Amino acid sequence: MSIKIALADDHAVIRDGIKAIIERKEKDMQVIGEASNGKELLAIAQNTPADIYIIDISMPVLNGIETIKQLMQIQPNCKTIVLSMYDDRSLVEQVLQSGAKGYVLKENAIDEVLQAIKEVSMDRFFLSSQVSQFVVEGFLGQQTGAGKKSKEKSVITKREKEVLKHIAQGLTSKDISQELNLSLHTIHAHRKNIMRKLNIHKQAELIRYALKEGLTQL
User: Fold this and answer.
1) Exposed, middle or buried: residue 151 (CB in 10 Å: 0-12, 13-18, 19+)?
2) For residue 207, which phi and psi values (nearest 5 degrees)?
3) What is the topology classification, in CATH, of domain 3-140?
């Protein structure tokens, strides 16, 4: 019996690459639908349901996590595999909590996607090797870096966390000052203190830190 698969990624080249791997190497797997965002994938699920959905974590219109949550309402028994560029612990945990069975890093997709489909089709989990270790440690309660993480969290104040959250969401300093009802000078001071305390000096690194600490989601 053929495994029916639907793909969702806003980059056509990635969809084409995964589809080519599946169709070239596996006779018992069939790609029955492709989508460029989460909303399109939900439409596929309603009209031509698949057995496994391979979903990009970061898509326009509806991101991967929200797509999975809505997909589970439409098709409770479906199985999902997330594609991601990020190996952050908090993001992986959010994905698993949403109901996904697999988490594949895009850099490993060519080598791992077929194995992920096979494992998930048998109702097992599949995680890329880079993320599997800390996920296992988390479930076993052996989070050796937990103390360090707590210290990092306590370094910045509650207000600075609010500012960092808004920075990670793409708001400008002016937008943040209006959102938090603070002066622009105060926001600049908070931003400067955050960067100094965390020893982070680039916007992309601030966003990555906010994701890791669960202050914001993609």
Assistant:
1) exposed
2) -65, -40
3) Rossmann fold (3.40.50)
- Tens-digit pLDDT string for the chain (218 aa): 789 999 999 999 999 999 999 989 998 999 999 999 999 999 999 999 999 999 999 888 888 999 999 999 999 999 999 999 888 777 888 888 889 999 999 988 888 999 999 999 999 999 988 887 666 666 555 444 544 444 444 478 888 888 998 888 888 899 999 999 988 888 998 888 888 888 888 877 888 888 877 777 65
40, 6 in Cβ contact below 8 A? no
What does DSSP say about strands 52-56 and 126-127: parallel, antiparallel, or unpaired? unpaired
Coil, helix or strand for 33?
Answer: strand
Enter the tokens of residue 114.
């077929």
If residue 134 lies in a helix (H) or strand (E), which one and from where to where? Answer: helix 129-140
CATH code, 146-212? 1.10.10.10
Q: Is the pTM of this model over 0.85?
A: no
State how far the Cα of 161 lies from the Cα of 155, in Å rounded to an integer. Answer: 10
Q: Give the start-to-end residue ranges of the domains of the chain.
A: 3-140, 146-212
For 63, the 3-state DSSP assignment is coil
